[in-house]
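Bit of a strange request maybe. I'm writing a small parser for structure token strings and I need a real example to test against, not something I typed by hand. Could someone generate the tokens for this chain?
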Amino acid sequence: MIDYQNIHLTAHDLFAPNGSPAEDCLIDPLLFAKQVLTVRAGNQRDAQQKQAELASVKIFRGQPSNHRQSFMYGISQRQRSEWTRSALVEVTYRTLKYPPSWPSKPAQEKGIDVLVALNVVKAAADPAYDVVVLASHDTDLEPALEMAVSERRAKIETAGWQGSRVLRIAGGRRLWHTALNGGDMVKTRDRRNYLPPRP
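Reply from user aminoacidic:
Good idea to test on real output. This should exercise your parser:
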């Protein structure tokens, strides 16, 4: 499970040169998930855990309105088209919330954390998964992790960027966490050009 905007913008804040536009740190969800598994395997002592296979990559993110931001909406659609070329990848969008003062005040994601939380808990109870990894630094998702752990079926873990907040559950207890560094970020960047072709 990838809280996309959180992972994307945190990578930008941590690793991008000063002044770099956020789009220079787009993350390819499939490459990110594969890199998490690679780094995770290198840190595991249990041979069975080292052999974990990627079963699904679920991305959750806000989507610009086609009416208000048609250019950005088009880019988001092209991104989904590219990312879902792999049958492993599923993208769930929720339209951004536009304040009355937009565009002087930017649109914001609303409800993405709820969607992520619901899907983490759902996946934790799904017999199709032995391990569920949540990639996010958003502490609002910690109650969902606690509920997922209470299912006592799938192993619940987190992932994210080295140097940023690690999610915890009740009592400050930490779950297994896979931290990717700047070198890993370079390997997971989405370098595709999503701009529309010139007429």
